[in-house]
Amino acid sequence: MTVDDVAQYLRTPKSWVYENWRREQIPFRKVGQALRCRHEDLEKWFDTQEAN
């Protein structure tokens, strides 16, 4: 998934994804200069997050 895909999935602005991918430990990997995330990894990460 791209940053755009993740932002749409999480229903957050793309800027939030970029600002929080390290702090929130969103499971991205760098491919060249682009960030990519596997859907399965994002699901696992999402399931571990506490509800606010």
In whole angstroms, the N-to-C terminal distance is: 25 Å
Provide the helix percentage.
40-55%
The radius of gyration over CA amounts to 10 Å
Shape label: globular
Based on secondary structure, the structural category is: mainly alpha
Tally of domains:
1
Q: Can you count the helices?
A: 3
Mean pLDDT: 91
Subunit arrangement of the protein: single chain
| Unreliable stretches | none
Encode the helix/strand succession as letters.
Answer: HHEEH
Largest sheet: 2 strands, antiparallel
Strand order across the biggest sheet? 1-2
Strand percentage, roughly? 5-15%
Number of strands: 2
Question: How would you describe this protein?
Answer:
This protein is mainly alpha-helical and 52 residues long. The chain has one domain (3-48). Helix content is 48%, strand content 12%. It contains three helices and two strands. The protein has helices spanning 3-10, 14-20, 39-48, and strands at 29-31, 34-36. Strands 1-2 form a two-stranded antiparallel sheet. Helix 1 crosses helix 2. The longest helix has 10 residues, at 39-48. The chain is globular.
Quick structural summary:
This protein has 52 residues and is mainly α.
Structure characteristics:
52 residues, mainly alpha, 2 strands
Topology of this protein?
Elements: H1 3-10, H2 14-20, E1 29-31, E2 34-36, H3 39-48
Antiparallel strand pairs: 1-2
Helix pairs in contact: 1-2
